[in-house]
Amino acid sequence: MGDNHNPDQPENESFAESRRNFLKNSSLLTAIAVTPGVVAKAAENDLGEKIASAFEKVPLKMEINGVKQQLSVEPRVTLLDLLREQLNLTGTKKGCDYGQCGACTVHVNGQRVLSCLSLAVMHEGQKITTIEGLAKGDQLHPMQEAFIKHDGFQCGYCTPGQIMSAIACIREGHAENEADIREFMSGNICRCGAYPNIVDAITEVKNNGQKL
Amino acid sequence: MNEAFFDKKDYKSLDRVDGRLKVTGAARYSAEYQLSGLVYAVLVESKIAKGTIKSIDSKAAERAPGVLAVISHVNAIKVPGYQTSNQHPSEPPVNGQPLRAFYDNNVYYNGQPVAVVVASTLEKAQYGASLVKIQYEKEQHKTDFDANMESAVLPAQAKKNPKSPVADYSRGDKNAFANAPVKIDAEYVLPTEVHNPMELQAITAHWEAEDKLTVYDKVQGTQPTQKQFAKEWNLPPENVKVIATFVGGAFGNGLHNWPHETAAIIAAKQVKKPVKLVLTREQMFTMVGYRPYTWQKIQMGATKDGKLVAINHESVGQTSSYEEFTESTLQQTRMMYASPNINTRYRILKLDVSTPIWMRGPGEATGAFALESAMDEMAFSLNIDPIEFRLMNYTDSDPDKQLPWSTKYLKECYDAGKEKIGWEKRKMQPGSVRSGEWLVGYGMGTGTFGANRGVAAVRAELDAEGNLLMQCAITDIGPGTGTAMVQIASNTTGIATDKITFQLGNSQFPKAGNQGGSSTVNSVGPAVQAACNALKEQLKTMIASNGGSQAAFASAKTDDILFVNGQIQIAGSDSAKVDIGTLFKQNNIRKIETTQESKPDENRNKYSMYAFSMHFAEVHVHSLTGQIRVKKVVCCADAGTIISPKTAANQMIGGATGGIGMALMESAIIDHRFGRYVTKDFAEYHVPVHADVPHVEVFFVNKPDTLADPVGSKGLGEIAIIGVAPAIANAIFNATGKRIRELPITPDKLI
C-alpha cells in the first residue's frame, strides 16, 4: 500500500511507529544473540512482522468450557474478541462493545461478566463458561430448555447473553419474584422485545428449584 | 365471539424450529463465518457534516503492524456500476442516488464512511483506523429540522406522478374543516429513532474468483441484495451469492444496501482475501438508516354528536441531501375512519444527514401517533368514550380505494381488548384514578397496515423416509419464518413437524423478496402450500397407477391426501394406507421434488386488504416525579389466520415493546453545531429494557382472510407496533391531563 499514499502529504512519524520500530529492533537484537543468521534475514521480510508480533503477545492460561487452553494473546484483546475471533466461540455476541447491552455476557468462575469490558489477560487461570459450554452433550441446560418452551427470543442474537445472565440471576438470589428478575436482567437488552417470555422462562427455572 | 380469540398460554403451538441453534450459540450470523485467510476491516468516518476531503494521510496507518491496506476514494478500485452515468446500480427505495462508498471526496453527513483499514486482526485494523488523518474543506451544514422546515418539498415521485401515494390527496369538500362544529388543530413531533437491532450490521465479503462474489451479509433480502451487487460489480446474478441464514434483528435497516457493504467488497477485492467488516454501535446511528424525524399537523373536525366531518393531515419527514426517502405516514388517515372530507399533504426535508429507511411499522406507526392522539383529543372534547367515538366513525368498506375490505374484524378487537385491560375502570376526567402517589390512566390506539402479498417460490423435496425439505431465499430476521412455514407444510400434508425442514437465507434458493412490510407469511406461505400440494399430486398419481384398492386415489381431492402416522391416506375414508418407502421402491425412485411459485391474484383489485390491531395501555405516572411506568398492555390483532401462535404472540409482544420505546424513551439527538449525533450508544439512546416492559396480553381474532391469500394471513409485524405509542400517550393524558404531542414522553414533560 506504500505507493498509494498521497505524495503531497508530509511524512509524519507517529509515536506508535517509533515504538514499533524500537520493538522490531530490540527484538531483533535479542534474537541475534540466539540465531543471528535466520532472524536477521527474517527481519528483512514478512517474518519480521511475525516475530515482532510474537513479542507483543503474552501467554495466557484459561479453562474455557472445561477445556484447558494455553494461549498467546495481545494484551489489548478483549475476552469477547478472543472468544469470537480467535477461538471460534461465536455464541458469545458483540452488541455494543461498551458494556451496555449484555449480549457478551459469560461466566467467569461462575459469575456473570461482560466479556467486552474485560481484557482476556485479566482472566489468567480463571474458568470461563460460554453459551457453548452449558449443554451436556445433547442435554440442554434447563435455562436453554425454558427459553425454547417460553419462546424467550426472536432473532436469537441477545439470547446467549440473556441465558448466561438468567442463570447467574438465579444463582445470585435475584430471581425471587418477577420485579426482581426484571431489575436484575435489565443489563441484557432484547430489541425484538421478548422480555415477558424471558421472565417467564427464568421464573419457571427458578420455581423448579434445580441447582444451576 | 370470544372463542375466536385465544390466549397464547392455553394454545398448543410449535416451538421455534431454530430454537435449539439459538439457545446453544450454534446459530451463525453474518460476522461468524471463519473463512480461511479472513482479514478484518474497520471504517474511518467523516468528522464534518458537509464539505470535501482535502487530503488523507494514511502513511502511519499503512505502516502500522498487520495493516494490509488503507482504502479511500484516493485509491479505491473502480466499482463498475458506479460509472454508468448518474444511475447508481443500487436501486434506491426512493428518488436520488445512494451514497457510493469511496467514490469521490464529497462529504454528505457527519459519520459517513470515508476510508477503510484492512488488517490481519481486528485489533490491528482498529488501531490502523485510528491513525488515518483526514483534512477537510468544510461547508455550512444544515441538520436542524425545526430551523429548516420551511425548505420542505414535494417528493420528486409525487411531482412526476400525481397518483403517487405521497402526492397531495383530497376527498370530498376541501374546506370542510373550517365549518366543522368541533375542531382539533394540533402539531405532533416524532424524533429520529434508530433501529438498533442487537446484532451490529456485518458483512463478510469473499471473492471466490475474479468474477465470483459470496457475501455473508446482514440483510432482509438475499435476492434483492444479490441483484444490487450483481449490478454494482457488473456480474451475472448467479455469480453473486448472498447468505443470511441468521439475522440478528433488523426492523427495516436491512431493506437497503449501504456503503459499508460495498466498502467491504471493495476491500476484499483489493487485498484479495475474504474481509469481515462489523459496524460499531456508534456507526449504527449513521450508516444503516433510521426512522426519520417527522413533524405532523392534524386538523380534525366533528359534529357535536361525534361524527367526523373532516381530517386534514400534513407531514414533513426528514431525508438526506442525496436520496429522497418517503413513507406512508398519511395512508391510514385516508382509510381508517368514515370521514367524508380528507386532505393529506406530504413533504420531505433534505438535510445534511444520512438517508432514513423504513423502521418497523414505518410511516404508519409515525402517522398513527398523530392520528390516534388526535382521535383521543377529539373524543375528549366531545365527552365521548374513545372506543365509542371510533365505533361511531367505523367504516365497513375502504373510503379511500372505495372497495370492500377483504376482511375487517376490528370491532372484535375493541371488544376483547376493552374487557382485558379493564376499560370500565377508566374515567373520562383525567387524574381521577389514583394508586397511592401514582396517577393511573388508560389509553388505546388503533393500528392498520396493508396486507401486501408478494411473489415467492418454494422448492420442496420428499424422501423415502417421509422427510420433507423445503427451500426459499427469504430471510428470517426474528419473527420465526421457518417455524411458520414448517407449520403450514405440516397442516397441508399431515407430515409431522419434526420431519419437516425449511431452509432459508440463501440467494440460491427459490425466489423471494425482502422480509419486510409484514409480507412473509402471506407471500411465502402460499408457495409452501402450493409446493406441498404439488407433491401430493405427484403422490396421488403414483399411488393411483398401482390400481386395485389404491385406484381411489385417482379421484381423491388433493386437499384430502394426507400423511397419517407416516402413511399416505385419503382423509375421511377407509382407503388403503400407502407406505411412502414402499411406494418409492415400487417406482424405483428415491425422492420426489417440485418448485412452485405463488403470486397475488385479481382479488387485489377487487378488495381492500388490511390487517388491523388494537392496543390498550394502563400507565401509572408518579404525581411528584413524573416517572412513567407502563403497567399493562393488551394487544388484539386481526391478522387473518395465525399460523404459529407462539411466535406470532411473541411478535406482538415485541411490537408493544418497540411502541413503549417509541412513546417513552427513543430519541436520537444531533448537536447541530457539528451536525453529529450525541446519542450514539445505549447509554444515551435508550431502548426498553426488562424493567420497562410489563406482561403483554396478546389476543388474535384468528379468522382467515382467504381473499388476501390462500393461507389466509394478513401479516403481523407492523400492526404489532402501529398504534402502541398513541395508546401510551393517550393513557398518560388520561392519567395526568397533560397532552404531550412530542415524543418521547419523558418525565420532564410532565412536571
TrEMBL record, chain A:
Record carries keyword Cell membrane: no
Keyword Glycoprotein: no
One Pfam family this sequence matches: Fer2
Alphabetical list of InterPro entries matching this protein: 2Fe-2S-bd, 2Fe-2S-bd_dom_sf, 2Fe-2S_ferredoxin-like_sf, 2Fe-2S_ferredoxin-type, 2Fe2S_fd_BS, Aldehyde_Oxdr_Iron-Sulfur, Beta-grasp_dom_sf, TAT_signal
Domain 2Fe-2S ferredoxin-type: 58-134
GO MF entry, a single one: metal ion binding
Keywords, alphabetical: 2Fe-2S, Iron, Iron-sulfur, Metal-binding, Oxidoreductase
PANTHER family: OXIDOREDUCTASE WITH IRON-SULFUR SUBUNIT, OXIDOREDUCTASE, IRON-SULPHUR BINDING SUBUNIT-RELATED-RELATED
Protein name: 2Fe-2S iron-sulfur cluster binding domain-containing protein
Native organism taxonomy: Bacteria, Pseudomonadati, Bacteroidota, Cytophagia, Cytophagales
TrEMBL record, chain B:
Organism: Dyadobacter flavalbus
Domain Aldehyde oxidase/xanthine dehydrogenase a/b hammerhead: 24-140
Protein name per Swiss-Prot or TrEMBL: Xanthine dehydrogenase family protein molybdopterin-binding subunit
GO molecular function: iron ion binding; oxidoreductase activity
Any Pfam family hit: Ald_Xan_dh_C
UniProt cross-references to PANTHER family, sorted A to Z: DEHYDROGENASE, XANTHINE DEHYDROGENASE
